[in-house]
Each structure stands twice: as structure tokens, then as C-alpha cells.
Design brief:
Helices cover about 75% and strands about 0% of the residues. By secondary structure, it is mostly helical. It has one domain. It is globular and about 45 Å long. It starts with a helix and ends with a helix.
């Protein structure tokens, strides 16, 4: 099993893994990730990168990703985070009294996601995988499949994909020395 340092060294040191991530980050930067990145790739890259991020690196990567989303997409994602927090019994500072305006703010949403990631590192990945229909959807899966994703089931959620791909791509670029 690969350790965190091995993974980060591969990203920083070159080789095939670095090229894979460079390609991923370039596709993310070329436009909406819903078009060029598959659901599975977004989930896989997020799961590979997120556990190795400090809270600050996670927050900054999330901030950049959420900044690329529309205010409506940020609000939808923020509501999903709130629901997951309530379902899991956790509390995210400030999220219980968050207004629609707060949820549309990329800085607020990044702090919220970063706090959730720190408190329950697997919760956000599980939530996102559930939104994408990549397995495990659990509590959130039924809810999302019946309404928040447009009623067409959970085969894909562009908001979840944008968040996951954005956090992973932004962090990978930082590790590889580019912005």
C-alpha cells in the first residue's frame, strides 16, 4: 500500500503519476469539469489527494474550486454539506445559521468544507461519491436521487463533480509547483 509521502513524492518528482495529474488539472482548467472529467475520475482523484492535505491546503483548494462554481451551484453544494453534517450528527462552525448568501460565498463554503473534512475526513468523500453515484451513497443517496439532482437518479451530479475535481486538481497543481 502506498504511503502519503510516496504519493506526494510522485506528484512532485515527475514520472507517469505526475503526468496523469497534470493532464487531469489541465482538463479541469479548460472549462466545466462536467464535460472533460468522468464521475469516477473526479471521485478517485479526490480520494487520492484529499487525505494528504493540511487543513489550510484543503481550504485554499476548496476556495479556488468553489470560486469557479456559480453562486447557485455553491448554494446547492452548501445545502448538501449541511444535510450531511446533520445526518452524521456533526456540527460545522457557522453552518447551522448559514444564510443563502453565506452558502453562495466561496470563502464561507471553503471554511465549511474544510471544517467538515477535518472533523470527519471520510464524510465528505462519502457524500461526494454518493452524489456522483460512484457507490456507497448511503443516507444522502436516497435524498439526492429523489430530488436535489433533478429527479433523474444519481448517475451524476455536476456540482459534486466540480467540487471534487476542483479540490483535487488545485491541490495537485500546488504539489507539482504550478498554479
Amino acid at each position: 500500500m502506498r504511503t502519503g509521502m510516496d504519493f506526494l513524492n510522485q506528484l512532485m518528482g515527475g514520472g507517469d503519476r505526475q503526468q496523469e495529474y497534470r493532464d487531469f488539472a489541465e482538463r479541469y482548467d479548460q472549462g466545466p469539469p462536467y464535460e472533460r472529467i468522468s464521475d469516477g475520475e473526479a471521485a478517485d482523484r479526490y480520494e487520492e489527494v484529499a487525505p494528504h492535505l493540511s487543513q489550510e491546503d484543503y481550504r485554499l483548494s476548496a476556495r479556488e474550486a468553489f470560486g469557479r462554481m456559480s453562486p447557485e451551484e455553491r448554494e446547492e453544494f452548501g445545502k448538501m454539506l449541511q444535510e450531511q453534517s446533520q445526518q452524521s450528527g456533526g456540527t460545522i462552525p457557522g453552518e447551522q445559521h448559514a444564510s443563502e448568501g453565506d452558502l453562495r460565498n466561496p470563502d464561507f463554503l471553503a471554511r465549511m468544507a474544510s471544517s467538515m473534512h477535518q472533523q470527519q475526513p471520510d464524510a465528505l468523500g462519502g457524500l461526494m461519491k454518493g452524489m456522483l453515484g460512484s457507490g456507497g451513497g448511503g443516507l444522502v443517496g436516497g435524498m439526492l436521487g429523489s430530488g436535489m439532482t433533478g429527479g433523474g437518479g444519481m448517475t451524476s451530479n455536476p456540482v459534486a463533480k466540480a467540487a471534487m475535481a476542483g479540490i483535487a486538481a488545485t491541490a495537485a497543481k500546488k504539489f507539482m509547483g504550478g498554479r
